[in-house]
Design goal:
Mean pLDDT: 88
Low-confidence stretches: none
Structural class: mainly alpha
Number of domains: 2
Number of strands: 0
CATH topology of the largest domain: Arc Repressor Mutant, subunit A
Order of helices and strands: HHHH
Shape: elongated
Strand content: under 5%
Length: 100
């Protein structure tokens, strides 16, 4: 029997991760209970534990961080385009227009 990849809801993943954190059942028992692979249980548990601190970060600071990352990416892109532009000008012997 071939199983089709299923998309799991975040609620489902949290439920599985919390069960794994409680340690009342083994990973194999949890996996069979929810009909998923044991590796998925440990992955979701580990992800839950590593990213749990982000729950308590104010959303406004997350927005600033996201825009800061976007700004940094754009500045890097501008820098790369400037380097490419200067290289092409040099190779094509294009001179900058002189001031009048």
């Amino acid at each position: 029997m071939i199983k089709k990849n299923q998309r799991r809801t975040p609620d489902f993943k949290v439920k599985v991760a919390i069960d794994a954190i409680k340690d009342k059942m083994t990973v194999s028992q949890i996996a069979s209970k929810y009909d998923i692979h044991p590796k998925q249980v440990t992955d979701w548990r580990d992800q839950f534990l590593t990213e749990a601190e982000s729950i308590f970060i104010p959303k406004t600071s997350l927005r600033r961080t996201k825009t800061d990352l976007e700004k940094e990416a754009l500045l890097m892109k501008i820098g790369q385009l400037t380097i490419d532009n200067d290289y092409l000008k040099k190779k094509l012997n294009i001179r900058k227009p002189e001031s009048e």
